[in-house]
DNA sequence: TTGTATGCGTTATCAT
DNA sequence: ATGATAACGCATACAA
């Protein structure tokens, strides 16, 4: 390995001078600077970032922790978009991204996320897909390494939190449906372990209440966010409530499952049943029919997370943020006025 | 920061003893071992991997380099699947993954990929989306850090190469079409800068030749793999060759663009025009009509890349591999017998 | 402007 | 079985 010593020797200067040159310090004569650069090029020296990190305590690396429920890796369009947002922003700050995927196989690991952060010495971390109460995150509140949580809230002096306005988004969805004359609105939610699910449920209830529609327990089903579980949920809801005219689905993937099963049951969308999704993933445009859905700015979630994280990294006193990004109802063809 | 010294002090042993304990070395008495572990737990010590890496020269990290053409990040389904394959395998070997995305904005950077690898001291690297001849990769042949290339071949004593059998896949696609009676088969290729495109073109030509169909220059168009450019390509081909009855598309995304435009032009698929894609991305099942396509095992590409990389990392003498994974024709509803 | 010396946290070598 | 010490490659405080 070619080190700074080799450069120093060949350029006939001290190691510290070389260090000054590669770090663009001012106090070095033009002549030696050029000579050093010349040697660097000649022997193709590349500074060892590991050694550098050990000295200055920074790795210029951000850890990305993903809670993989599916065991298939990062497949959910939401997560992929968020990651791309994260990356595009990280890029501007010249930070690297290291992936740490936690899944159930790892449950025997005794390491919490903060443990991993401390070991690997990442400058900060972004978490996606975790829950408030689980071993990975149980000690997270006291982290000294800055962390940004996406879509689930934990308090801490070094923890920020970015999410969408899930409550408001749900209200928009339900009011859209109510505006079209729907009163019996089924709700196919994600798992209640997810904070977003609880928020969306809250929105569903609030909207109904505002319009004087009674909340009915048996109009709501939980899923694990996959199309597969959604299929069963929608069938169950239909069976128990023959007069349902619309469904609000807590994600587009859930909507995909619901649509599939409804079609199999001979129901037409939106003629017989209106459907609203959540997320506005790329594919939902191409659903048959194209999906009316609540749009989240997934990329922006990633960008904002990084922006905040960078501020936290650079300023120990930076006050943690709790950010709710606005959502927007995108009306396509899966919803229509109720049949008389 | 709590270091090994703190543990040593509190446990009243030397630093070396602590080191032995945390590395599970045998030569330490059960008693002290337990005492040390006790202290470690008490003060929540986590070993500093950076320091460790500096000593033993290994980071347990693999670099992932992605050539982003779109500037939208990693959005291509092919790449996403490959990454998930990479990850699932890396996981077994307890290696971390660090992302380095190169795009055109970075073209002013003077750093090649091997430079970055040497700086960051990754144990190995996997490259996706690059070309044989560009500055990022121009010095790659002489890398001492093991590298696995996906989908483009460069020789080197520390370079392996994983790809699909693109040539064979194309032949299967074309022969399927020929078997259905098609003779005028348009080919919407990706960019010829990509090795896979050249292979697929080769397959197209070979298959035609084998069946005594003359190759026609103006039946072939290049795209940049996006649906958008594919739309124009397909229109141009149709305009110049009214008698085309089928298209072979070098990717499913290209097929998506082609289908879209053909429909807009009033052509029915497969009644008027048959379409074969390449890749078999998840969505192609849901195309209208579901796409007949050449399936690549994208996840396996990622897995194999890692397996080989790990071997290269652990054995300096390991002979680089050139692997071609088999492809498979998946027949769905976008192809049919030619109209009389 | 340049060089010397020290330390970052760890592992490994050599003693004891 | 345990401890002292050097070394990894670099940045930096201090000296010159």
Which spans of chain A of ≥5 residues are poorly predicted at pLDDT below 50?
Answer: none
In helices, the fraction of residues of chain A equals: 25-40%
Number of helices of chain A: 11
Strand content of chain A: 15-25%
Strand order of the largest sheet of chain A: 2-1-3-4-5-11
The main sheet of chain A comes to:
6 strands, parallel
The assembly state of the depicted protein chains is homodimer
User: Biggest interface pair, residues each?
Assistant: A-B, 35 and 35 residues
Globally, the shape of chain A reads: elongated
Q: Structural class of the secondary structure composition of chain A?
A: alpha/beta
Averaged pLDDT of chain A: 95
Query: What's the number of extended β-strand segments of chain A?
Result: 12
Give the radius of gyration of chain A: 26 Å
Distance between the termini of chain A: 79 Å
- From N to C, what is the helix and strand string of chain A? HHHHEHEHEEEHEHEHEHEEHEE
